[in-house]
Amino acid sequence: HYEAPAECADLATAVGIRLSNIEDGPWGRRPATMAIDPTPGADTTARAPGGTEHVYRGAPFAIVSAATRRARLARDADPPAGNPPQVVVVVGGPDPRGYLQPLVTASLDAHPTARVTAVCTNATQATSLRDRCGAPHRLLVEPPIRDLPIRFISADLVVTAAGTTATEAVIVGAPSALIRAVGNQGPVYDALVGSGSAYGLSRDGEATSVR
Fold it and tell me: For residue 2, which of 24, 32, 33, 35 has the smallest C-alpha distance?
């Protein structure tokens, strides 16, 4: 949590616990025994010293779930057929800026036979999406699941925000298009798009820039 207190390390040390802390670029930093910043490219940028005994940075230290590893193996064994194209759109969280709907609409418009799976976080969002998007026969609205990478096994394209989900999609091997939904996603967006691992859709972080 970005707002967890800096005193966490002192509290942990007082009871004999060694604290590890997940950083996200400059966000979420606090003193700890061990710091992990899995942001792609973090190991090539400077980090202010102090407060942490061991620091591990960059894509080699990405926290990869068992579901992500299984999804990668399944996709390698049985690649998507691509006919019709299968697109997964997931923004994550409550989506207060309304990125999901324009991304789904753009995905439906991009190909006349594409089937789009939209991951919604609540019933209100799902109802609004069904009402506002065209081609309802090509749209499947689903709730979140614990092991989201499973949805990427058969995807010809994953459209998502540049957070943890983007890294998972790239690891699974699904072609991915990213937006910067919030400011702290900038480093992941720049690293994945800049390396050619994903396609960038954002200009100034706005979903409305999607073409």
Answer: 24
Q: Tell me the torsion sign for CA atoms 194, 185, 211, 203.
A: negative
In our burial notation (b when 16+ CB lie closer than 10 A, e otherwise), range 61-97 reads bbeeeebbeebbebbeeeebeeeebbbbbbbbeebee
Those residues whose C-beta lies under 8 Å from the C-beta of residue 100, and which sit 6 or more positions away, are 89, 91, 118, 120, 125, 129
pLDDT digits over 17-70, tens only?
999 999 888 888 888 999 999 988 899 888 888 778 899 999 899 889 999 999
Residue count of the chain: 211
Both tokens of 105, joined, read 């609409």
Rounded Cα gap, residues 161 and 201, in angstroms:
10
- What's the pTM value of the predicted model, to 2 decimals? 0.86
